[in-house]
Amino acid sequence: MIRLLFMLVLFGVAFPAAAATDHGTLAAPFEWPTRELFFETLLLKDYNTRVVTLGVLIQGLACGVIGPLLLLRKRSLMGDVLSHAAMPGIALAFIIMTVLGGSGKSLAGLQIGAILTSLLGVGTVIFIRANTRLKEDAALAVVLSLSFGIGVALLGLIQNMSGSNAAGLEGFIYGKTASMILSESYRIAIVAGFIVLAVILFFKEFQLLCFDQNYAASLGWPILGLDLLLMGLVVIITVVGMQAVGMILMVALLIIPAAAARFWTDRLRNTLIISGLIGAVSGWMGAVWSALIAKLPAGAVIVLVCGVFFGISFFFGTKRGVLIQLTRHFRFQLRIAEQNLLRAFYELLEKRNVLPEDLGEDSPPAVLDLDALMEVRAWDHRRQLHRIVRTSIKKGWLFERGTGCYSFTRNGMEEAVRVVRNHRLWEAYLIKYADIATSQVDHEADRIEHVLDPALVRELERSVLGESAHINIPGIRSHV
Amino acid sequence: MFEWYSSDTVVVLVGILCSMACALLGNFLVLRKQSMMGDAISHAVLPGLAIAFLITGSRDSSVMFVGAAVVGVCTALFTSWIAKWGKVESGAAMGVVFTLLFALGLVLIVRAADFIDLDPGCVLYGEIDQVALLEPVLFIQDIGIPKPALTCGFFWLVNLLMIIIFFKELLISSFDPALSNTQGYSSGLINNVFMVLVACTIVAAFEVVGSILVIAMLVIPPAAAYLLTDRLGVMIVLSQIIAVLAAVLGYLGAAVLPPLIGFSGTSTAGMMAVAAGLLFVLAFLGGPQHGLIARMLRRFKLTLRILCEDVVGLIYKMEERGLEPQRVQVNELLHRQMGCRIITLNLAELMLRYRGKLDVRSGTFKLTDSGISLASKIVRAHRLWETYLEKHLDQFDVDAPAHLLEHATSAEMSDQLSRELLAPEKDPHGSRIPPK
Hints:
The complex is a heterodimer.
Chain A: H1 2-14, H2 16-26, H3 35-42, H4 47-72, H5 78-99, H6 107-131, H7 136-159, H8 169-174, H9 182-201, H10 203-211, H11 213-218, H12 223-245, H13 247-261, H14 268-292, H15 298-316, H16 322-351, E1 368-369, H17 370-376, H18 382-394, E2 398-400, E3 405-408, H19 410-434, H20 441-448, H21 454-464
Antiparallel strand pairs in A: 1-3, 2-3
Helix pairs in contact in A: 3-14, 4-9, 4-12, 4-13, 4-14, 5-6, 5-7, 5-12, 5-13, 6-7, 6-12, 9-12, 12-13, 13-14, 13-15, 14-15, 16-18, 16-19, 19-20, 19-21
Chain B: H1 6-31, H2 37-44, H3 46-56, H4 61-85, H5 90-112, H6 120-124, E1 136-140, E2 143-146, H7 147-165, H8 167-175, H9 177-182, H10 187-209, H11 211-228, H12 232-260, H13 268-286, H14 292-320, H15 327-338, H16 342-354, E3 358-361, E4 364-367, H17 369-392, H18 399-405, H19 411-420
Antiparallel strand pairs in B: 1-2, 3-4
Helix pairs in contact in B: 1-7, 1-10, 1-11, 1-12, 2-4, 2-5, 3-4, 3-5, 4-5, 4-10, 7-10, 10-11, 11-12, 11-13, 12-13, 14-16, 14-17, 17-18, 17-19
């Protein structure tokens, strides 16, 4: 898996050429960076790029690490809400600072305002959900749109304010990665480091909070406190990071790496690591590309890189990826088809009373041709039957005796007996306990026979043994 | 306070129509737990606008509209695919889709900004105040109606018609998708058609009034209406009323409030959203059934009733032993036993005196006749329950559960208990059970 991830990273680095030509067709042709410039930027030789890239990289790491916790608590869109809830805080802080005679654009002041209103927003969501009959989604949407409205109204006030200089507030909200300066980069690094550390320290607590909140509460853990801690961390990283990548794209960093990581693993620890890596690599590559190519907004590129990772994970993820799911599905289908073939084969022989007692190579010629098989069961068409016969031969269950005629091998016979036995045990069970008409049980049993595990089979044997006089259950007769 | 011009009428009219059109659809978004869809689509349409422009090269609104509507529908589709195939929680799937589309749109617009006049601000944030400056296309009396008003009105009508025609289908698929499927109304298809409607309305309203008003009006009026009623029809009507109120109050607020606190003006759309929020708070506080005040009142009335019953029960028992219950004594006992606050006890006493159950003479309580009949009902229930619990459930501590049950036992139930227990005269403690 680590090798796979490594390949993903390589792929991501090789990707800009393709992406760039795409955009090239849409807009004016642009300067394609020289090879030297490319590696210079990639390896962070340039001072400005280094500052920006490191800041965004660390931020991506922190968002990636905390994102899965939000995802598991079904609060992914909380990031969206609290980044909107930061707007009134920024505007209010600006107004207050200006009225008090300051410049109004002190970064720390604006960020404190944003953090306060974001926390208020989170609190309001939790309050609405707990005290009204509105569901989570409506609570989120109400708080989001209301705080957005207040933010817009306050920004409107500011724009009409006499003697204030509001230019740049928008940039704070919509992000301006390229102009990040060293102190901001440091600030992000410190905050992000703090968040990663907090997640590591409280890993066990957060894990239980995400998976089984009630159990955690029964252990006497302060659930509300932990919840507030988690949301507080999210608020801080959102507000601090918003300036770098913008409001909406901040939301993406919290959600996309987390959602992508879940395709690779079921373990929370691994999810956090993978998600953090995706976030960090996306930040790094996004920043590098936007530095290399003119007119590529860094925030958007970072998110698109995240999106590429998500797409790859969505299709190729080793745990829940679409391909692996499809493969599992087809394997299961094939197994069912094979078992159906074996049972049909067995029952045909049984009907003709030519079931071999001894299962040797030199057993009597219990031979079947496909035409006979075609009649027993509604196969889709002959080709399908051929294919299944071929895979069964490959697995050593059948062998060919002359053209178009087949016989059981010893293994094949054993497997067929097992399948038929499962089928008939279930039929007997249905007749005895479920009160289903005898003519109906075949269809029901047809569906269940493929998924009976040995323990269940033993249980069935015990409960229907000796009561199924009219059903001939192979492999059980000897016990009776 | 300020002069009202015909331009004010136009802006308010556009605000009202747009709010109503959005709120109409929002009812179903809230019921379907898709409230965040408004916010998601409003961000996600950006690449649709950009691509439509890049392909046709015109800023004609109908082209823009098609592009945005297509992407809006795609947002809903992609979200449901990712949620279904990737087994991602639907909120997160929505987050993935709309942030990615927004980022894509941003890149397209910035890349293309060299030779076209298109920036995120101008496509995303229409400003409602500007509709008054547009050329009117229609005159009703003296008021010139600009095109945006007609657009919003048209979408309101379309939405209204769709909801009226497909009310049954929407209702059933919103409340119970599985039932809807078994009845032959594909909930998936209904959902997709509905999303087309939502996307088109959002995009149309966007261009006119900007995203904030759309996002707010899609959710807040329906959510407020949801707090006020249990019936879908009533909820839709209420959401329309709230939307109108929000638009009017918001406009007035934007005109009147800023000068009061020393500013010269603010965003009208923002204030309309704020007004909607205030109406939501009002609904949350004052809703008749689910409102905070109504719930607190109900709880308080219940508390008071139980306390009154406890007070008369206690006085009854004291009088039974020939004691003369003093107010101080009764209050002290109840305060110690049940932690009642003295102020609620005083309220209960006032209530009992007002209802003529209790006489107070210089600090001594005395039950009136109707007080005695109430008290004997309570004490009878209490002691019958004690007997019952002791006899049938082998309860060791019978007093506490009987204390809870006595308040929820009707006279008929007491009679049944009495019959069941063969009309006992004494409870397990040896106290007399009052007759009927």
